[in-house]
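User: Can you help me understand a structure? I only have the sequence.
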Amino acid sequence: MKNEMMTPMQKDKKYTCPMHPEVLSDQPGICPKCGMELVEKGNQKANQVRPIRIDIQLKRGAAIH
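Assistant: Let's start by predicting it. Here is the structure, written out as tokens:
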């Protein structure tokens, strides 16, 4: 059996579910509540809110103001 040592930086990583932030793990995996992949907590790219851009023609067709 291979004995793998974790670095201090790896030990500090926590993973959480994007939909269930109360689900925490010290390793990547799957959320037991919804089955989504756990993401690294504090990972700015994973937690970043991105705006949705809608083409002006689609806005007019859907009557979105």
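Now, to help you interpret it: DSSP finds three helices and three strands in the chain. The radius of gyration is 19 Å. Let me know which part you'd like to focus on.
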